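Researcher: Structure prediction, please.
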Amino acid sequence: MANVTVSTALYRDHHAGVGQLVGRIESLLASKSVESDTAALTATVRELFGIFAVHLSLEDSALYPRLLAHPDAKLRSTAARFQAEMGNLRARFDLYRTRWPGPVAVAKDPSAFVRETREVVAALKHRIGREDRELYDLIDRAGWPAPPETGFQSLNLTEVNDGGRLADLMGGGMTDKEGLRPCVSPCVSPLSHRPRSMTTGPDVSKPA
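Model: Predicted structure follows.
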């Protein structure tokens, strides 16, 4: 196998952004009034899923193909395991979004929404923690130099919330008017230029 250059810097940066939002959501979930006023929680969850959708797109198109072609057998097998596990977690996210498509659905059973949000966010937090420790650390220990500049900039929360900025990051993928929901229709990753479908969090821009 040829040498494969892999850098974890961009992906760790995405995880840090996701972690910030997870912290905000955990604070909202700890509030005694969260079930009586779910608006802030719903909006933040939607923001979290939007950012994580971008992260998954990059992993699918740029990270995992490199890892599965890596000369290190342990790294290849670890990457394959994490990729398979992500399929199960993605299905769980899809089910959550289907169950809670908007504020009308949330208003019908806010306690269930809060409970399921707590479970999904905990699963996501566990996933990115394991990915950092078990996969990204393994990549770093492999000692490969960083790849050439890809032209894809680090993702931060300000950019994601800035109108069409997320559409630019996604290479033309569609967002809603607030720039928070990427690629509800098939989209194109800026690195792969291959269309794929994406799933994000609850859409609070319209009733269920």
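Model: The chain has seven helices and two strands.
Researcher: Thanks, that helps.
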